[in-house]
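Readers outside the structure-tokenisation community will struggle with the description of the input data as it stands. I therefore recommend that a typical entry be quoted early in the introduction. An entry of this sort, consisting of the sequence and the corresponding backbone structure tokens, reads as follows:
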Amino acid sequence: MSGGGIVTALHHRIRNGMDLQIGDTPLELAAFDKPHRKSAILGRDFPCTRLETVASEGQNVRAGQPLLRDRDRHDIVFVSPLGGILTSLQRGPRRAIVAVGEMGKGRR
């Protein structure tokens, strides 16, 4: 930085890069070893959306099936992360959706 509040930029030029050895196939992740049995979608995780339900409580849903959508922008859809029965639909003040719970069949 030079005097008088003038900022000078530093430019770096890389002439020779490293040769990275990347394997043929990616490693398998151990994060999804066990099948999930429960999942939930929380309304607070999606601010600035007004959610309405597409599926009803007690309905049998498949993975990827729409559960919720935005009231104003119908192209924004929230889908089921796993297949199973939609167990709970919790509403808060002014009938805003707080949480949607789902009991899975034990599959991914």
